[in-house]
Amino acid sequence: MLPNSNKKTVLDPFGASEVADYERLYKEFGIDPFEPLLSKVPNPSFYMRRGIIFGHRDFNRILNAIHKHEEFAVLSGIKPTGEFHLGTLMTAKEIIYFQQQGAQTFYCIADIEAYEDNNVSFEKSERIAVDNVADLLALGLDPKRTYIYRQSEEIRVKDLAIIFGRPVTLATMKAIYGERHIGLYLSALIQAGDILLPQLEDFGGPKPTIIPVGVDQDPHIRFTRDLAQKFHRKYKFILPSSTYHKLMKGLDGSPKMSKRQMNYFTLHDSPETIAKRISNSFTGGRATVKEQQELGGIPEICPVYEICLFHFIKDNDKITRIYHDCKTGRLLCGEHKKQTIERVLEFVKEHRRKKKKFMDKAQEILQLKYEREKTKK
Ligand code: SF4
Question: What is the pTM of this model?
């Protein structure tokens, strides 16, 4: 167990995280609750309004920049190990939201982490990255206002990682990340480089930067904030801010979606696979129809309810009705799964149609980048 964990709370960006009670993170990890800030956000996102974004560090700094129309940045990324799923979809929507609020936008393809953590070769992750970028464009990211890069190609990020490594001891890394191989410690330093990249002079110098992530990534944020402080004199870094969203459960009811357990679907699985995975999903339902009608279901532990809440039902009255109908036994799992499959497949069909149009553009964005870098060398 990691040193930053206890019996029911594990925040591990390289492993299985588990959060039994989000409230406890405020006290135990020093994360601030997001709810008190909600009324001050000019145009709160869907995730903020639903309480799915539940915590933050220094989000006031971003709010200030938005209110005063000052420069700020957003950075997010993806580990190119596979196709988009509902977890990566959340982060993508968050970065697009901040871009729409005026943020200078950075999107990192974390191919070094994919290699170190998942043993995905750079050649393979390059192909996956093109696909991931097409997903992002289809979802609405404006490529003209985004710096999209691969970690392995971005020399400034690697330089920062080398510089940041000097004051960091093995004991510090073990305290934050537990006992890991050196490659993972290296990828943590690289991620610190990613997070602070928008504040380099090449991108206009120090500025408030928001990192919207799942709460399992908090160790990276704390580590980077510590480095930003250590290197303040040299770079004048402003401590990066973060928002934290809740983690989506696996379809088997486990606390997090996991590739090892294959307890989720991707946006590019066949309609049959998606339908089958949702049909076979764990639910908060009872053992028999009769029991469910009498006692009601438990939406709080149900991944099918969560799919609707996090992604597919935008209308608040509708989601409240589903919650209520489940609780009172009026809605049964079979029927709810059927409705959910229809909603998911409709979205996926439309998303794929849009995405097809962006494949060439995604290729072009990443290719142009490589060619530009090669010419420099
Ligand atoms: S009715 Fe829906 S929300 Fe309720 S337990 Fe069944 S699948 Fe989950």
Answer: 0.91
